[in-house]
Amino acid sequence: MTTLQALRGTRDILPDEIAYWQLVETTARDILTRANYQEIRTPIFEQTELFQRGIGEATDVVGKEMYSFSDRGDRSLTLRPEGTAGVVRAYIEHNLFAAGGVQRLWYTGPMFRYERPQAGRQRQFHQIGLELLGTDAPRADAEVIALASDILQALGLKNLHLAINSVGQGDDRDRYRQALIDYFSPYQDEIDADSRDRLSRNPLRILDSKDERTQAIAQNAPSILDYLSDDSKRHFDRVCALLEQLSIPYDLNPRLVRGLDYYTHTAFEIQSDDLGAQATVCGGGRYDGLVEQLGGKPTPAVGWAIGLERLILLLQQLRDSPNPHPDYYVVSRGEQAEAQALCLTQQLRQANLAVELDLSGSAFGKQFKRASRSGAKACLVLGDAEAAEGTINLKCLESGEQESLKQSELLEVLKKKGKRQ
Ligand code: ATP
Ligand code: MG
């Protein structure tokens, strides 16, 4: 029989690693909740058409990376490759705009793209993202960037850079598209095959090519900043000025275009120096046309998504696992003692202490070794003698000091000592 294994590009997140994930999730949730963002959970699969219409046929994500399949009713479904399209569909479907004004939403969960797996790139990966819908104010762009920056800073990450650009809108984009077609056409035979393919369909995406030769040619391509209308320029200048007032450093990168078609105006990425080739931790921007494109009323919006695998890789370089230690470790031996130990452990847990109970019934020496490894500060010891007397020993694992306590007073005493720091 073949051994069953997790599929290529997917992985198990094991208990050793999970504390990092929980730290990221808690940090993001706290920061976003304080900023009045509400969590939204949308389905993991959707009609394929949602992504085709939302993300754009000419993008890599839709053209090459989607996990699409027919279900038993012959409907074409797709495992979501990103979060925004589903959130916007839900926003339209449930009239979330009827609540009036601005809607602040965030989400987290797995996303699926058929890509070549490598460090920081998987077929099932996870994102935390947010969407701020219903305002075209430059302050909204600045707010969402500031929140991404707050989350990454709260996690203690260093060596991150914010790169920002405007991809304009409507006419500016059309004129720029034409300028790129004019610029790249003479290089048709030198650029990579994908880029050649994009030349007529989606020339902006050539700027995003990872091919070295194409990148070198793209160095001298026209800059979108020279094609922005006065309105687009005003919006972008304002966003940049606000970032300065927020003391958020940024680099202007006129070649930054994002992988998804729906972006307008502001596009940005946060990259790390410590990740090698897959350096982008957070990508986002404004997408004023998407709600209308998916059948809603015209609604400006801006958002981002953070790739959690890459974030966790960075955290692992930075610190040991934030796995919590128990406050107390309970060792016991003998039938009566073991039963009492279980009951006392439960009593302490119900009083909000973190208590690990050794279930082995092995010799005290072995149990003490495990107690030390657990990281608990103190051990609670119950043998036949203590069980018969209704007492329990509290042993400090650092100093080895012991004191005998009445079981009936244990909870009170431990509460006074407080939780392990
Ligand atoms: P890339 O250029 O790295 O492929 P992208 O432009 O396709 O990124 P987005 O769609 O903007 O990425 O997604 C936002 C973030 O999600 C990325 O910056 C990255 O951190 C993460 N991400 C995207 N695809 C993957 C993947 N296949 N595996 C792991 N993380 C991913
Ligand atoms: Mg990609």
Automatic annotation (TrEMBL):
Reactions this protein catalyses: tRNA(His) + L-histidine + ATP = L-histidyl-tRNA(His) + AMP + diphosphate + H(+)
Annotated EC: 6.1.1.21
Keywords: Aminoacyl-tRNA synthetase, ATP-binding, Cytoplasm, Ligase, Nucleotide-binding, Protein biosynthesis
CDD domains attached to this UniProt entry: HisRS-like_core, HisRS_anticodon
Top enzyme class: ligase
Family: Belongs to the class-II aminoacyl-tRNA synthetase family.
NCBIfam families the UniProt entry points to: hisS
Protein name per the record: Histidine--tRNA ligase
Gene label: hisS
